[in-house]
Write a structure and sequence with these properties.
Blueprint: E1 12-18, E2 21-27, H1 33-52, E3 63-69, E4 83-86, E5 104-109, H2 129-133, H3 153-158
Parallel strand pairs: 1-5
Antiparallel strand pairs: 1-2, 3-4, 3-5
Length: about 160
Amino acid sequence: MPLPRKSEPKIFQILVRTHKTTLFFTVPPSTSIGFLKEQTLSALTSGLNEEEGIPPVTKVEDFELCRRRVVKGKDRNAATQREYDLLEEPESTIKQIKLVNWEVLYIQFKNVEGQPLEIIATDPPIDDEEDGETQHTVQSSLPLDKGKRKATDDNDEDSP
């Protein structure tokens, strides 16, 4: 008996990343790339770009959304080997360009002449090693050479 086909999600989680910031969008598969760009612009103009050193934008033409290309045979973690594909058709939908749930898109800003700038995005660490190294230690105010007190002879006198 064949396994039932997995149904397509009714809602997609799309992540849009730039610098050290990740924007999360919950959208249906019929959402267009143009709408994702408008939502990204809304987030970028809400003061976000002032905090992270993100270039200022005023319209959707100031940036592009890109998908990271999987390059076989190369170390995908090396920043110098990253390759991106522009999502150039704003009327295309998530379903049409075959984005998957939890897909990460990247913002490519443009300079004042409209030329694309380098994509700057820091991916979060996969493991929690950095979090484990930042442990807080609490020092006791008691001297280190003191332990349990021994019973003194004074206590023996009180005993019957």
